[in-house]
Target: S-methylmethionine:homocysteine methyltransferase
Amino acid sequence: MSSLVLDGGLSTHLEALGCDLDDELWSAKLLVENPGVIRRAHLDYFAAGADVATTASYQASIPGFARRGLSPAEARDLIRSSVTLALQARDEAGHGLVAASVGPYGAYLANGAEYTGDYDLDEDGLVRWHRERFEVLAESGADLLACETIPSVVEARALATLLRESPGTRAWVSFSCRDAEHVSDGTPFTECAAVFSGLPQVTAVGVNCTAPRFVPGLIARGATVVYPNSGETWDAGNRRWLGLADPVEYGQAAAGWHALGAEYIGGCCRTTPDHIRQVRAHLDESGDGHAVPAREMRGA
Model:
């Protein structure tokens, strides 16, 4: 079974490069302040063995930029620029795909709601909130959309509505999950995945920004794209992080996820180019490191 290696935590690497992301816009603020460092971060992930660059549009939204005094036209241009930067890095690297990140409404709220699904909008409201950015990214030149960190079945249905309106737009969809069976709002993962079962342009459904220990159970329930966080928790008594912080251990776990059926594998928060380098190495070592052909992701 072939595999596609995704990148790791973009914000984590940007912080390692010296960026201060203590901001409601998170990494998206660099689209305004320092776009060059975003391009460098994408290049570092390609150099580490990633097949896919996921854009810095996760927390970019037209309302979010409006709170900074930018016009809707300026906001749309900045969102497009997130794709341009990744495309430039891809061209310089000489390989790879670009996935335009469609972050959840909770990212705009900047209150952690992408891990609870506790929203003040219903399904119709979420369709309206997502639509303009979704359309900008769908027409941006990215190879596909990464609809990611989705915490609820309601937001899943909203995104499915927009995907039905854009049948030529390829996408993967990934949920934030509270355990090995449920997404963050408590809905069974299988129920959320079924929302996209009738949409042929959805190349994979899975999980991200979820503890690695839950990934095997979620793969057993149909997840084929998996890019968890490092799974770290703070051990106050010993003053250390516990989890898959060690890149070699993460790479070993990734090989196990692939053996269980995951096809697209990468990392999310607190994973780095070193983690992705180990994912690539362990998949190659096991003979599973042959990338999914680009045409399968682009729909060519």
In short: The radius of gyration is 18 Å.
